[in-house]
Specification:
The protein has 11 helices and 2 strands, in the order ααααββααααααα. With 305 residues, the chain is an all-alpha fold. Helix 2 crosses helix 9. The radius of gyration is 19 Å and the shape is globular. The N and C termini lie far apart (39 Å).
Length: 305
């Protein structure tokens, strides 16, 4: 049972990072961006290309670091991918969404569907449909708890790295939103855009920051998904529904709500894979979503309108 929970935490940490950016878009930009999932896929593949390029320059950079399956080349590639994906998200807003904001939410949602199709097919054309991996190195799971305690608990070093880095990233973002001037301005724009504008907060600056942060987090989530499984051009669309489920479950606009929602969705999927089969894991996650929303219609941390 503990191992099922552990697997759910790994899945949930990936979903949580992607859900944070989607939650910020929903609360600040104020529309459901269905192209957000494709940013995860692009972030993962950009990291793969950057890592391969750095390895070609110096093969020693690809040597595994300690117990991990990756080396310095992938760590540097994550930074490159996060920056490029953040710029891609900002560029998408500048070219497409910014021009359509006055047309209303429905127009933006439909445009995001179109953007998702374009990004997915461009990625498929660029990388092909064959799954790829960041590393071919095999790892042995580390026993965190002995089998005598509820069946034991095992993690691979890569999984532990993902859990720790996800926690550090979320904590850093929380402190940024709480303590920095820009972060407080983003929170104000999320709560009351009109009042924030009257107070002298530049809405365009807030929107740019939202797209940059959301894109960077999406890239990080995509890389984590690629490390734990494999890279596929359709990985973004496969993660999109769990991302929305996590955002709605946790409460739109809440960072920790998105994290908790992601963990709950991850745990539900992990239990479903073990109990009823992998093909029903998304259905199990949405059953949990429906059950919680019947008790808390605004999400766990959502506020009443």
């Amino acid at each position: 049972m503990l191992q099922i929970i552990a697997d759910g935490l790994i899945i949930g940490s990936v979903i949580a990072l992607g859900a944070i950016g989607l939650s910020m878009t929903l609360s600040i930009v104020r529309f459901s961006n269905f192209s957000h999932g494709e940013l995860l896929g692009w972030g993962a593949y950009l990291a793969l290309v950057a890592s391969t390029t750095l390895t070609a320059i110096n093969s020693q950079w690809a040597e595994p670091l300690g117990p991990f399956s990756f080396g310095w080349s992938l760590l540097a590639a994550v930074v490159v991918a996060a920056v490029l994906t953040a710029l891609m998200a900002l560029l998408m807003d500048t070219i497409l969404f910014k021009r359509l904001r006055k047309q209303g939410t429905i127009t933006l949602v439909i445009a995001s569907f179109g953007a998702a199709l374009v990004l997915r097919n461009l990625l498929l054309f660029w990388q092909g449909g064959v799954p790829q991996y960041f590393s071919e190195n095999l790892q042995i799971a580390i026993a965190v708890l002995p089998r005598s305690i509820a069946g034991g608990l095992r993690f691979t070093p890569d999984q532990l790295f993902i859990l720790v880095l996800a926690l550090v990233t979320v904590t850093g973002l929380h402190l940024f939103l709480r303590l920095s001037t820009l972060g407080r301005s983003m929170r104000a724009a999320s709560i009351n855009p009109g009042l924030a504008r009257v107070a002298g907060i530049d809405p365009e600056r807030i929107l740019r920051a939202t797209w940059l942060i959301g894109g960077g987090l999406a890239a990080l989530a995509g890389v984590f998904a690629g490390i734990t499984a494999q890279l596929r051009p359709n990985m973004g669309v496969e993660l999109l529904l769990p991302l929305f489920a996590a955002v709605i479950l946790g409460g739109i606009g809440s960072i920790w709500g998105a994290v908790l929602g992601g963990l709950i969705v991850g745990l539900a999927e992990s239990v479903a894979v073990t109990v009823i089969g992998a093909e029903y894991r998304s259905a199990a996650a949405f059953m949990v979503l429906i059950a919680i929303l019947m008790v808390k219609p605004n999400g766990i941390f959502g506020e009443k309108n």
